Amino acid sequence: MKKVSIGTAVALAAMAAAVTVSLTYLYAMERFNSKVADVNERQAMYAKLNEIDQKVRQDAVGTLDETALKDGICEGYVAGLGDANAQYLSAERYRILQQGSAEENIGVGVRTIQDEDGNMEVVEVLPGSSAEEAGIRNGDVIVAVDGSEVIRITYGEALTRLSGAAGSEITLRVLRTGEQEVERDGKTVTEEVTEPLEFTLERRAYEDSSIDWDIINGNVGCITVGSFTEETAQEVEEAVSALQEQGVCGIVLDLRGNTSGSVAHMVEAFQQFLPAGNVAQYVNSSEETVVEFTAGSQRLALPLAVVADDTTYGAAEVMAAAMRDGKAAVLVGATTAGAASRQETLPLSDGSAVILTVGYYVDAQGNSLYGQGVAPDREVELSILQKQVLLRGMLDPREDPQMQTAVTALIEQGAQVQQVPGTEEQQAASQTSGSDSAEE
Q1: Which domains does the chain have, with CATH numbers?
Q2: Could you tell me the CA-to-CA distances from 204 to 54, 99, 128, 162, 406 in Å, in that order?
C-alpha cells in the first residue's frame, strides 16, 4: 500500500475543507439571494397596492366600504395563487362555515352535478328537506344563488353557499324544462319549454346518507360511496353486516361521483377494506413525504373490486390508489380526476380565515395523484350516454360495463357469482328488470 506523506494528507484535508466551505457558501448565498428577491417582490407588491389605494381615495367617487375593500384585497391575493382549492373566507363566511360544520347536513337538501354549461343540475331532492317542501324537482337547473350567477361564482362556490347556518334563507333561480302541447298548422304537437322559477328556501337539518348498498348479479354486494362524512363509518358497518347476512360472495365499492369528504373519514370507515400499512401520504411544501394514515391488518375476508372514473375526486382517489397499490382490490374503470390535494383552514387574527393547499397526495411509489389521477388495473370506458345516465343515478348495474367488469374481477378472485356477466342467466335477469321498469 502506497504511503501518503503528512504534507499531502494535510493538503488534501485543506482542499476538502475548502470545497465544503465553498459549497456551503454557495448554498447560503443562494438562499440569501432568494430571500432578498422575496423581500424585493413583497415591497414592490405593497408599493403598488399603496399607490392604487392613494389613487382610489383621491379620485374615486362614492363612499368606500373599508371592510368590503379589505376582504376584496384578500380575496384577490388568494385568487392570484392560481389554486382552485384556495379560498379567503371573510369573518362572516367563516362563522357560517363553522356553524354548518358543527351541525351536520344543514342546507337545502339537494344533490347536484355540474351540467355542460357550468350550472347546477339537481339529480336528487332529499326527503324532508326544504327543497322537497318547496317543490324543487330532479332535472331542475340552478342558475343563480342569492342573485349571483353560478357560472360566474363557479360551481364549487355555489355548492358552498347552499350550506350555512340553520334558519338562514337562500334564494335560488331555477330553470325547469318540460313539455306542452301547442297547435301548429292545425295539428297538436308537443314542444319542449323552459320555465324560469325562483325559490326562497330555509337552510335546515335534513337526513342524508353518504352510502347506498344493493345486491347485484344475484349475490354480489355493491356499496356506492357518495362521500365521506362522520356518519360513513357507521353506515359502512351496517351495510357490510347486512350484505354478509345475505351471503354475498364478494363486494364492489363504487367510488364514481364521489367528490367530497375527508381522508380521515375515509380511513375510519374503510379500515377493514384497506391494505395493511401506509394508506395516505402526501408531499408538503418542503417536499417531504408525510405519512398521514395507516391501516391495520384485519381485513374483510371477501373478494373485492373498486370502480372509479374521472368523477372520482380527492379522498376517493387516495382510497382507490391504496386499494390498487396494496393489492386489496382490483381497480376498474377510468383514470380518476387528479384532484387529490390536502387543504387546511388557517384562522386569521380578525376572525377570517384562508383555505390553502398544503400538500399533494402520492401513491405507494411516490407518484403524485394531483394532476395525474389514479389509473385503473382494468380500463373500461362508458359511452357518453351511459355517463349521463350514470350521473343521474339511473344506469342499471347489469347494463354498466364498468360494474360488470368489476364482477368478473371478483369471479377471478374465487367468488361464486350466481349471474355471471355475459351468460344467459345474467341477460335474462337484465331483461326481466327492464320489463319490470317498463310496467312501472
Answers
A1: 107-205 (2.30.42.10), 211-420 (3.90.226.10)
A2: 45, 12, 10, 11, 39
